[in-house]
UniProtKB/TrEMBL annotation:
Domain of life assignment: Bacteria
CDD domains: GIY-YIG_COG3410
Source species: Wansuia hejianensis
Name of the protein in its database record: DUF2075 domain-containing protein
Domain Schlafen group 3-like DNA/RNA helicase: 193-557
Amino acid sequence: MRSLEAFREKLENHSSDKEKTVLLDYPIVYIHNWKSGEEYEIYIGESNDVVRRTKQHYDKARDKGCWQYQLKKNSASLYIIGHEHFNKSLTLDIENRLMLYMMSVENVKKIHNKRSNRQNRYYTDDELNEIFRFIWRNLRNTDSLLFPKESVIKDSALFKASPLHKLTQEQEDVKDRIIEKVFHALKKNERGQLIFIDGEAGTGKTVLNSSTFYELYSEAEEQGREDLQCYLLVNHDEQITVYEQIAEKLGLNDRYGKVVCKPTTFINHHSADNPIDVAFVDEAHLLLTQGKQSYKGNNQLEDILNRARVTVVMFDEYQILTTEQYWEAQILNHYRKIAKDNGNHFELRKQMRMAASEETISWIDDFTKNKKVTKLPMDGTGYEIKVFDGPSELEAAIKKRAGEEEHELSRMIATYDWEYSKNSSMEERMLAYWEVRIGDWHKPWNRELKKELGRKEKRRSKTLSWAEQPQTINEVGSTFTIQGFDLNYAGVILGPSVKYRDGEIVFDASASFNAKATRNRTLSDGTKRKFGETLIQHEVRVLMTRGVNGLYLYACDDELRRALKEAAGSQGKHETLLIKRK
């Protein structure tokens, strides 16, 4: 960049009167960006005086340990964003949203901002969305790699789990309580504190978890507590990848070391004699409640509680999918009671994933919780439910949706009712892939097509969730790849384990290939029981609550398919089920 004097001279002498006023007299937002290899690093800020603020950054550029040093070293570029309607609050919100978007860009390696500064209501807040879209379109015209399509960003798993989202008031209240509790425990040298958050699928548990986790680090730095020991744990391969990217892009790994891991790894590397400060556990319903090959204990939650002063868990008992994760009612209630007795139990109720009416959500609840197929309600939100006569028609509809720019993240998913094994040889069965097979129709199970990718595509796919990988439009996902993630449209295949008999849905464990759900479980009193029916019911609920914009259904069971079509009042093949379009 040329000297700051030349920079100001250009603004003053080569801009229109309106441009000079907007850029020099109004608040502005700016983006410093530079290349690090093939990727970008960025800093986003706002100021009332862009020249003075840029000079402050360059004055710090002598220190090799700060991000400002990269401005001179790597020939950084600077975007200055002004608007005649900008005020302080609006520029802060634009800055926050740019941070949220750009952290989700695949080609952005790191964001150097410390924390966001979210605003509440203000006079011109109704203009935020329109102005931001205008800004993003113009930025995209300058560099489509750094500023990709909004639909690509919003569909990314990184965006959906980002700690930079503006929280609801319900989430803000819980976040503030958690942070308050953590610092109180640290000050009093307490340990074993449990904060328990209940919330069903789509109620914002992941965003609350990541936001509180990041905010806690930022708050600790402001208080001079840079020795804070804080870990984020999740027992899910796909979600681990997302959280690791967040920690890397926000610089947490640089400052604190590896802060994201699986529960077993955390337990094996930490001792109850030297507890960390706080452990955040997302998808805590996936914690193990009995030992297995890699985990030698009996209860991962208890082991984590013993290794942290404060433990924060996000829990949804309707998403427990295997016998290893099954919680006996009295044990689960024991932990809830501990949290309640200390004023540390919270419940998230608002459905934030599905753009559907309460009546439509209740219909899905009736199906997945009460085993009933009730008449589908009218829904004026635009949420769409369709039922199909065959899997090929379902596939065609999902691919059509995925071909639309705003619905690219549409995929087929199914109950675990067809064989799949990592340890068994497909060659012995003369199979190219493990597949979902229905009559003459067949499609590979999730992750099967990855083996056909080139080296570059395989490397790129490591940072993407299953549904974000392009080849997965030709696969069928399962709960093990889609749990915790969203789709635009979910094409759900209800396999032979989901039947309809005598006016009620039946979850038939004998028709499932999910051995982790159907095998015996040894209880705390030494008796053995099967929980396959309950766990398959949970599996169906996970699948049917993935779609943000719509749910497409095909049922293998003839009676269930007829019941669904009757409930919808459909007269022909794959008609929209009484759902009002926008």
